[in-house]
């Protein structure tokens, strides 16, 4: 298990008036948008890793064995059965539409995800050697879309708004972003796998993510008033990307 999280990015997906409160409390029950309170944070690994991250071309994909890509998981015993079942449903959702199979960790599996309720919802980007945490805090992260989002990071996928082609689809309003959070909006040289920018992706931030003043931080060029970032389930494009990156049909 990698001990050092060099930094952890928090993103409150709260509505604007609640942002500063929810960042620390994560109590989604009080929230107007119950679906996603905090969203996806990428824990940077020791080695440099950068929709599919460049690391997927140099070894951070999970290996395929036969038709399937097995990703071993271990779920912390701290979760109640109810909480564990939410996580399990999220993990199992990958097998409905992709060749990814989240399988229980067994002795001898070197690489795996260890799901634990830590500080917020976050994941490493791509497969790490020797096991990696996925944090799903009990209060704020136990939603199908959040489980999917964090597993998608572990599979090697970035946030939608950092895609290499994002400037065609969105404007980032850096003047509205909380100081110190700008890095979460920096464009990356992603491999978009021939799929379009998708506002309905579970990897899309909310339009007011990390706002310091209640104004939008991400604006859709096709419709400046569009609200987005509340997907409850993987979109067709999320599924297509997995199937392409992991060559599910081959
Ligand atoms: C999520 O999407 C998948 C694939 O499109 C679908 O099979 C499944 O029923 C959806 N689940 C929920 C809870 O909406
Ligand atoms: Zn994320």
UniProtKB/TrEMBL annotation:
Protein residues bound to Zn(2+): 149, 153, 159
Keyword Metal-binding on entry: yes
Catalytic site positions: 150
InterPro entries per UniProt: MetalloPept_cat_dom_sf (IPR024079), Peptidase_M12A (IPR001506), Peptidase_Metallo (IPR006026)
Cofactor detail note: Binds 1 zinc ion per subunit.
GO molecular function, one term: metalloendopeptidase activity
Span of the signal peptide: 1-18
PROSITE patterns: ASTACIN (PS51864)
Cofactor: Zn(2+)
EC number: 3.4.24.-
Broad EC category: hydrolase
Highest taxon of the lineage: Eukaryota
Domain Peptidase M12A, chain residue ranges per copy: 51-249
Keywords from the named record: Hydrolase, Metal-binding, Metalloprotease, Protease, Signal, Zinc
GO biological process, one term: proteolysis
Sequence intervals crossing the membrane: none
Protein name: Metalloendopeptidase
């Amino acid at each position: 298990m990698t001990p050092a999280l060099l930094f952890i990015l928090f993103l409150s997906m709260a509505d604007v008036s609640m942002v500063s409160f929810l960042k620390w409390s994560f109590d989604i029950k009080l929230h107007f948008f119950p679906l996603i309170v905090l969203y996806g944070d990428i824990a940077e690994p020791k080695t440099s890793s950068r929709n599919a991250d460049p690391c997927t071309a140099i070894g951070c994909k999970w290996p395929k064995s036969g038709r399937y890509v097995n990703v071993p998981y271990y779920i912390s015993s701290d979760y109640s059965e109810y909480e564990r079942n939410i996580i399990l449903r999220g993990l199992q959702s990958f097998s409905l539409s992709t060749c990814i199979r989240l399988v229980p960790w067994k002795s001898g599996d070197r690489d795996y995800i260890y799901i634990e309720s830590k500080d917020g919802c976050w994941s490493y980007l791509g497969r790490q050697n020797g096991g990696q945490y996925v944090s799903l805090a009990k209060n704020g992260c136990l939603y199908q879309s959040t489980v999917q989002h964090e597993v998608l990071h572990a599979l090697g996928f970035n946030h939608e708004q950092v895609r290499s082609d994002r400037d065609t689809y969105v404007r980032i309003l850096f003047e509205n972003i909380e100081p110190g959070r700008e890095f979460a909006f920096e464009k990356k040289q992603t491999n978009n796998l021939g799929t379009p920018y998708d506002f309905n992706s579970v990897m899309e931030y909310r339009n007011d993510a990390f706002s310091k003043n209640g104004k939008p931080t991400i604006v859709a060029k096709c419709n400046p008033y569009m609200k987005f970032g509340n997907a409850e389930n993987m979109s067709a494009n999320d599924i297509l990307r997995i199937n392409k990156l992991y060559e599910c049909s081959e």
